[in-house]
Amino acid sequence: MVKIAPSILSADFSRLREQVAAVEEAGVEYLHIDVMDGHFVPNITIGPPVVASLRPHSRLVFDVHLMIEKPDYYIEEFIAAGADLVTVHVEACTHLHRTVTRIKEKGALAGIALNPATPLALVEPILPTVDLVLLMTVNPGFGGQRFIGEIVSKLEALCDLRAKYALKFEIEVDGGINVNTAPAVVRAGAGVLVTGSAIFTAPDIATAIHDLRAAAHSTLVCIKT
Ligand SMILES: O=C(CO)[C@H](O)[C@H](O)COP(=O)(O)O
Ligand SMILES: [Fe+2]
User: Fold this and answer.
1) Residue 114: what pLDDT?
2) Is the pTM value of this prediction over 0.95?
3) Is 87 in the pocket of ligand 1 (CB under 6 A)?
4) Does ligand 1 come within 6 angstroms of the Cβ of 34?
5) Which numbered ligand comes closest to the C-alpha of 197?
6) Calpha distance 159→122 (Å, rounded)
C-alpha cells in the first residue's frame, strides 16, 4: 500500500489548520512539513512553532523534512513540537550517523534525504540504521517544480540495495509527483509519495488525493498481473 504525504509547502497558510483537516479526512497517512532556512536552500519557510500549533489538531504522522544547515541544533526542538519522523539532508550533515542516532534517541523515526546529484554510495553504510530514505526528485527549495526523470534509476538501485541486505526502511520520493509521474516511481519501488502543488492547488483536495492514489494503485495492479 503506497502512502501519501501531502506537503503543506503549497497549502494556503492562512487556512493551514483547515487544509490539514481536509487531507486527513481524505485518508492520507503522513503530513509532510518542509522546513527551509534560506541557507541550505534559497527559500525560508516554517519552524517548530508551526509544527507545535498543528499537533493538537491532527493525528497524522508528522514527516518533517529539514532542508537546513546544521540540523543537529534543531532536532530536539522539532521532536518536542510534535515531529514523528525527522529527515535530514545527507549534504548538510558532517557526521550523519551521529545525527541519525540523535534523532532516534530523542524518540522519533529517522530519515535521510539525498539531493538529485548525490550518489547512493554516500549512504550505503548507514542504510541499516535509518527508517526512511527520501530521494529528491527535484532540486530542493520550492514547490511546483518539474520531476527529474533520471532519478527513477536511482530509486530502482535503492530498492535493490534494500532487498539485497533485507532492510526495512521506507522509500519516499519528493518533488513533482502527480498522477502522471506517480506510476513510474511506484513501479520503481517508492512507498511514500510527497505531493504538494498537485494536491493543494487542485480544485478539490479530496479528488486530487483520490486520483493520485488511483494512479499509484493502478501501477501495483499492473505489476501483479
Ligand atoms: O521538499 C520539497 C521542495 O524542496 C517539497 O516537499 C516538494 O517540492 C513538494 O512540492 P511539489 O509536489 O509541488 O513538487
Ligand atoms: Fe519536502
Assistant:
1) 99
2) yes
3) no
4) yes
5) 1
6) 16
